[in-house]
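[SOLVED] Predicted holo structure with zinc ion

Edit: marking solved, answer below. Original request kept for reference. I posted the sequence and ligand SMILES and asked for the 3D complex as structure tokens.
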Amino acid sequence: MLYLFCGVLSAAILAAVCRPLFRKDDTLESAIIEETEWDLLQPKKEVVLGNIQDLDFEYKCGKLSEEDYRKIRGEMSAEAALVFHQIDEIESSKDLDALIRREVSARKNKPGAVQSAVCPSCSSKNPIANKFCAECGAKLKH
Ligand SMILES: [Zn+2]
């Protein structure tokens, strides 16, 4: 059991370490950190769930005492809960981050938000919302 566990764990760690190296670099820089972290959690989740499955199987086969089974099962469930919680946190923050990015770019693309009105009289720049020039008071054309 322990031998199998170590084998699966080291395989998962190896996969987790190597996986980001083969990823296509097509994501935004700000998204790379959280995606890598998320990527690391995916195999971890598989391992944790696989271990629980193995444990259940071994218990059903009578290889484990009920006491051992309950003890290990409790530890594994706690670990699984932690991994699920971490994944959930990353996914929800990712959504929020994507939402902010979308809002920011929408503001940037909004006509008038960064434009300015040039005074026909003194050529100074005024906020587009101004009806009169802040420098000379001339009426601004829109
Ligand atoms: Zn002016």
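OP edit: Residues 10 and 16 are 10 Å apart (CA to CA). Thanks to everyone who chimed in.
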